[in-house]
Amino acid sequence: MIRRVAAALLFAALLATGARLPILRLLLPPHRPADAPAPPGALHRWPLRWVNDPTPPELVRFFAGIRAQTRPGERIALIMGPPYDNMGYTYWRASYELTGRPLLIPIAGPDEADAIAVWDKMYGHPNFGLVWLDGKGALLRRKP
Amino acid sequence: MTPLVLIAVFLYGIPIALAVDARLRGAALAGTSFLLGIGTIALHMFTLSVLRIPWTRTSVLLALAPLFILTTILAKRRAWLQPAHSREGRAGAMPYVVDLIVLVALVAYAIFALCRPPYEWDFYGIWGLKAKWFFEAGGVDWTFLRTNTSHPDYPLLVPLMFDFLAVVTGGWNDAAFGWLYIAIGASLIAIVRGHAPALVTLAAAFPALSVWIGHAEGAVMAYGCAGLLFLRAGSIRTGAIFLGLAAWSKNEGLAWIVTAALALLIATRGIRKVLALWPAVALISPWLIARSVLKLPTDLAQGSALQRILEHLRDPVTTFNALWSATPDQPYFWLVVALIVVLYARRAVQREQFLLLALLLQSAALVVPLLATPFDLGGHASFALNRIPHQLAPAAAFLAAMLLTRDLSAPSPSGESLPPPRPSTD
User: Fold this and answer.
1) Which of A63, B75, B255, B272 is least buried, going by the fewest C-beta atoms within 10 A?
2) Cβ of A11 and B203 within 8 Å?
């Protein structure tokens, strides 16, 4: 009997510690995780889907604009103002949104690029001319 | 559309599963069918790219037809020769109530998997990035694979699964990829159910549902754990195929083949069953050859990996502290599993020796490569050890719950209390 009770307690502990209550809570309305801002740099030890999309909608629209303005195969340099000015989450998000167009790593500089996507930063380059401007974003293309 | 495609994948996988093991029935057959179906399809996508045949809905579906026809004939032939076996317990109404609770957990997980697009780092940086690039290129882009900086050595099964969905549904819709994770998790749960009583399945249900939507964790976990369960039950061929697909999912899957082989060697005290794992090696060989031909670098092997391991070992206190402070997700779950294994150590050694050994060896195999990291050990371990132990969680929950079942329920003639498994060649 004692063995059975002990086994039942251990089994209950196994269930309780293995279960994910936040997921079970999704069975109740509104059936989605609570609104929570993404941590800085999207650095999180837990799945990011528990927090809001770390990329602001205007940045997603900017990437879509760059995609529409460029052709597959064009090498793109991404120059962004802080906090996106590193090879962090947003760089990879941009890589994903701009598939087919090799995205140069930020430290490489624009010398190898066919186009430069600029976000929230004053930037000019003698070999590149402005071809598209939208809000905080711009696209420069190498002059012929 | 995506759920319909996944149902078609399941149906496609049924003859494949039966051709591999004609004795499969019920939940084990259902889970095996989907996992083998989607795995086989992804390998077809890879083969088409090797043959330089562009992916279109027609080319992909036509490529799948020969194996479907062949396995249907083979499965029919084998069905006449093999008696069916199912280890599912059906004593009374209790298992059905427990199964219903598992179903509720699965519904909750489905909401989680579909509530948002997979905007994880590794989806944008590795798995989704490669898949989307390949989809737009109409096949595996070998140049991109060689030149991209996003873990080029990682195997391609998961990106190819995404690609299959995109090719067949006619467009890239990453918000629908959650369905794939639901199907993979449900398949693993079904396989657990096919090997164990309902209570054990309940214990393994949440661990079998990967919270990392968009990563390859769900696939390597499902294939790896399913492989171990089949090996434990003596279905060496099925287990080996699953381990081969685990190796196609993530590099940890390669270690899984080695650790499972070692565990089999020790548990069976013979080499025959180890050699019977050859399908695992045969399955992963094309990728290893491609990796070698394309010279795809592995970050852990950059520079002198051995030197980095030795450096970490020379400073055991710092190394231990770095690893100790990197707690896994759900640490209390792992403590409870460890407690059960310790309390039931004799039973574990007598009845679950293979599974116990395989899990211990694979746990070590997940930690040791971290010592070769070219990055800061503490930072790398903090992120890796939070997520990677999930790969073992369903099998660990299975082991712990199996050790308890004998004391939890009286033996019944229906199979609720199972005899000890005996790994044997099928």
Assistant:
1) B272
2) yes
